[in-house]
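HOLO CASE FILE
Compound: 1,6-di-O-phosphono-alpha-D-glucopyranose
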Amino acid sequence: MDLDAITKYSALHAKPNGLVLQYGTAGFRTKAEHLDHVMFRMGLLAVLRSKQTKSTIGVMVTASHNPEEDNGVKLVDPLGEMLAPSWEEHATCLANAEEQDMPRVLMDISVKAAVNLQQDAFVVIGRDTRPSSEKLSQSVIDGVTVLEGQFHDYGLLTTPQLHYMVYCRNTSGQYGKATIEGYCQKLSKAFTELTKQAFCSGDEYRSLKVDCANGIGALKLREMEHYISQELSVQLLNDGTKGKLNHLCGADFVKSHQKPPQGMEMKPNERCCSFDGDADRIVYYYLDVDGHFHLIDGDKIATLISSFLKELLLEIGESLNIGVVQTAYANGSSTRYLEEVMKVPVYCTKTGVKHLHHKAQEFDIGVYFEANGHGTVLFSKAAEIRIKQLAKELEDKKRKAAKMLENVIDLFNQVADRQVISTTDAERQVVTPPGLQEAINDLVKKYKLSRAFVRPSGTEDIVRVYAEADSQENADSLAHAVSLAVFQLAGGVGEPPQP
Ligand code: G16
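Model generated. Tokens follow.
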């Protein structure tokens, strides 16, 4: 390691004194102007991680659902999954080291993690469409280069595409070609075949309006469009030509406001969906004939997918175990339906794809979705081999069901001061400040079929309050009462929350 070169280049990406950031729910996230040093250092860290794992590592420059002024960075581990927790700690130490200490902290990490510095390193980089992303991804490249790592800059990419590229490269192309073309071919082939097998007739099933949150989803869906145009006609809205990223549109807006995004005119029964800023969330929605808005969020997507998979397994007579993983944000009725009607075991983890992904790996088929629209289905290697074998061996209807499952495998890109509030029990119970949990319990008792919890966001400087009850009015009223309790007991600043 050339410590002199590191010191010299680091000074060009100097850390503002005293700035402290945490590797949060999905990497580092804050205002873009505070991130230059973090990006440079994550370039360095990606090289160490690559040397240690002898694999390609991914770096994604994005702040996903956050406002356009924010940015962020997340590292992608060798099998396309989120960075291992022990390395999140290294990332936090390195990002927060004062300028003069940084080379020493870097050395400490490589000793602690037993990194062989002679090993080659390869890093792939992607970025979203934020105005700040291009310059920040150049800072990542500077970090990679100063440690003599090799890299490939994919430029504009969705987060799932970067996960895909990492996985392809680390399986020597077995999973697919590590190019946009390879990505489009793999997914569109599975989608086309599955659509044919699923036997859906009628034009209403073949068209979809897509709100692209004024982000990368628009560019990438356009590239994908001609691969799937026989099966699906897509109309792109909020494609970034005029509006601001995630502003009054996108999956987070639609989910939290329970209404269509700006710019989306909906007729009854038209099929619509929204991505978020880096296109790793999706929520669907439609208007019924009476003009009522219906949201198919992550909870409902998980339910639909698990019933579909259960039907196929029943058809082929195979008893692979399915498990569904949710977070505390899952609506209680979706959990009850999955457990009591569908008889599928449901598990609750902390917020963050990394937690759900980890749990879902315990099953033959692990379905995981956050209510906000992140999710996928994971098939264990053994389940995948068995399904492929059955698709060859079985006959007629059974063979068709096995073939559909085979396509489902390919369709899912499987790749697995608010801090005064601390929580436990998968974030459903408050530990500190004292008295807050008791106050929430008392409020919840006043409403039927109710549930509420609070937690500090890991991506924004806010406390999230969740409430559910037997009616919208009661849920809103409970949410307001809980927000007031947070304001009073956790040292709220400014005006108390308004109903
Ligand atoms: C990220 C994470 C998600 C999480 C969301 C909100 O999403 O990947 O797992 O649900 O942040 O997290 P928090 O409630 O801690 O702010 P995204 O789409 O912004 O990357």
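CASE NOTES: The longest helix spans residues 180-198. Residues 418-489 form a domain with the TATA-Binding Protein fold (CATH 3.30.310.50).
CLOSED: yes
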